Amino acid sequence: MPKRRDILAIVLIVLPWTLLITVWHQSALAPLLAIRKERFAVHHHRLSDEGAEGKKEAGGQDSKEYCASDKDIVEVVRTEYVYTRPPPWSDVLPTIHIITPTYSRPVQKAELTRLANTFLHVPNLHWILVEDSQRRTPLVTRLLRETGLNYTHLNVETPRNYKLRGDTRDPRIPRGTMQRNLALRWLRETFNPNSSQAGIVYFADDDNTYSLELFEEMRSTRKVSVWPVAFVGGLRYESPKVNAAGKVYGWKTVFDPHRPFAIDMAGFAINLRLILFKPQAYFKLRGVKGGYQESSLLRELVTLNDLEPKAANCTKILVWHTRTEKPVLVNEGKKGFTDPNVEI
Amino acid sequence: MTTRMKLKLKTVFVLYFMVSLMGLVYALMQLGQRCDCSEHDLPKDRAISRLRDELHRLQAQIRKLEATKQPQKQPPKSSLPTIFVITPTYARLVQKAELTRLSQTFLHVPQLHWIVVEDSPHRTPLVAELLRKSGLAYTHLHVPTARERKLQEGDPSWLKPRGVEQRNEGLRWLREDRQDQNQQEVVYFADDDNTYSLQVFEEMRNTQRVSVWPVGLVGGMKYESPVVEGGKVTRFHTGWRPNRPFPMDMAGFAVSLRLVLANPEACFDGEAPMGFLESSLLKGLVTLDELEPKADDCTKVLVWHTRTEKPKMKREDAMQAQGLGSDPAVEV
């Protein structure tokens, strides 16, 4: 009888301790299990992608805080609504400053219209439009005002000896250089390098085509990020070469791949802080060989090693270097057939 | 003595057991609570949770905005007539870029249904995936153009009419699918390389029969336009063959669905001479004085007939001849 009692006593002592220990183990492991599940779920969202109905489950899932490190969250939730105004401004997202040089020609309004239609989808976007003109034209002024975008309208006229003669493509004279430099100067005059305003600078020409994913890719730029561009350099696409460690080590181009930065203007984005900390960095105006424009700025800002590859390690095309045909206006004749007061 | 000792031991054990049990219960209750996370909190995590909160806040804000905006400006979505946009498309290098930027414009237009008709014997994954991701309401059709009607490499673009079978297929689908719907809806033919402002869709939305407006950069001119006198279209301002019944571009008119359904034989005639394609459809639907002028009595240009250059591929061709072409698995 005492033996049984003793055994009972021992069991009664040991049992709660074992339970406690197992429970303690569980509580340590449970968050880890939850993280793994969540990571899978989040990845699943990235792969399956967004539909017209907002994926609200993504929000619900994250309601519990788990202790975790290295979470790879990309939540792009598109809710089912239609708007012709830009998305509400966020205090947390870095602002994307888009620098677009433009000049008057028949397709200008069309190009800027469809560019604006694209930009209206991007949150925290600031459009810096720089006209190549003596003064700001009413066409562009009106267009910018009507879009409702957050914008800055600048202008600087390229002196005639720098301009293209007629409309022939002369690669020795880089177009839009003075306009881009003016925008850089405006940024440096407007933003304080010590302020915490996060920003990304991107040079977007008015005839290219941009996917919405591109802007989200560039938002996480720390110094300079790069990605492939379609239809440049006489190829289907040009792309940086990325090694297994995720670092850029070269350029996959045919046209002069030994340039310091063999990349198109649409293929990189720069963190605003870098622009502000290196106030001497501008695009070189004179004596720049064809294709070296981008290098003339980038080599003053960053080295090859610092480049951040985006777009799935530079394997996806998110921007296309489209060019719009010059419209045939033969029927206008010498005096102009159509009413010049109608704006096109 | 021993009994007392035993008793004491027993109480000790019992006490011990009770304490352990209480500790266990406490631990179990702790498990159900939220983790404090202060020891594990890295700045990155803090940023992530901040961003996530911001995201949820923005979403709530958007939903609120949408709820308050609707009674103000627009009537509830269901009462806006749907605009069916028929876009013929074909595979070429710039196809994905064109459809991408087109979808970005259409995403701003409420009650728009995009009917994409591929010139292909089957639906291509490129277009299917693009449509799926676009967020638009869409219908994905396809019909191949007969070989003798197709433009060959090196043919000038005006030699044969393009997109005829595809637009007719779009009309056929509408007639099949939309017989018993609310017939206030509108049909618009939008080519994939043009540029559309958002206003043009609002102009065409209340089309009763056929509405018309100017088109920029077409017909060899800055714009082509109907001429409106006394609120009616009397003639057309165009520099090329103004004697056509309807000397307009495809992008310059919209047809009400009612009219399309009431005239089941009306379609585009591929045999029509160059420039008469639009007329081949419209002459079976409407007369000149029934046209409804839009865009401020046809004085504003809200759509442009832009065309995208064919990208130069000579280096690509040279590389491919050497077997070093760019990775075809990368979709452009």
Q: Categorize the overall geometry of chain A.
A: elongated
Distance between the termini of chain A: 105 Å
Largest interface: A-B, 94 and 95 residues
Low-confidence stretches of chain A: 34-82, 166-172
Query: What's the helical proportion of residues of chain A?
Result: 25-40%
First and last CA, distance of chain B: 94 Å
DSSP strand (E) fraction of chain B? 15-25%
| Major sheet details of chain A | 7 strands, mixed
Number of helices of chain B: 10
Give the tally of β-strands of chain B.
12
Strand order of the largest sheet of chain A: 3-2-1-4-10-6-11
Q: What is the β-strand count of chain A?
A: 12
Describe this structure in words.
The complex is a heterodimer of chains A (344) and B (332). Chain A has 344 residues and is α/β, with parallel strands linked by helices. Chain A is 32% helix and 15% strand. Chain A has nine helices and twelve strands. In chain A, helix 3 packs parallel to helix 4. About 16% of the residues of chain A have low confidence. Chain B has a domain of 169 residues: Alpha-Beta Complex (Spore Coat Polysaccharide Biosynthesis Protein SpsA, Chain A), CATH 3.90.550. Chain B is built from ten helices and twelve strands. In chain B, the strands form three sheets. Chain B has a seven-stranded mixed sheet with strand order 3-2-1-4-10-6-11, sandwiched between helices. Chain B starts with a helix and ends in an 11-residue tail after the last helix.
Task: Describe this structure in a few short sentences.
Chain B: It catalyses: 3-O-(beta-D-galactosyl-(1->3)-beta-D-galactosyl-(1->4)-beta-D-xylosyl)-L-seryl-[protein] + UDP-alpha-D-glucuronate = 3-O-(beta-D-GlcA-(1->3)-beta-D-Gal-(1->3)-beta-D-Gal-(1->4)-beta-D-Xyl)-L-seryl-[protein] + UDP + H(+). Chain B: Pfam families: Glyco_transf_43. The complex is a heterodimer of chains A (344) and B (332). By secondary structure, chain A is an alpha/beta fold.
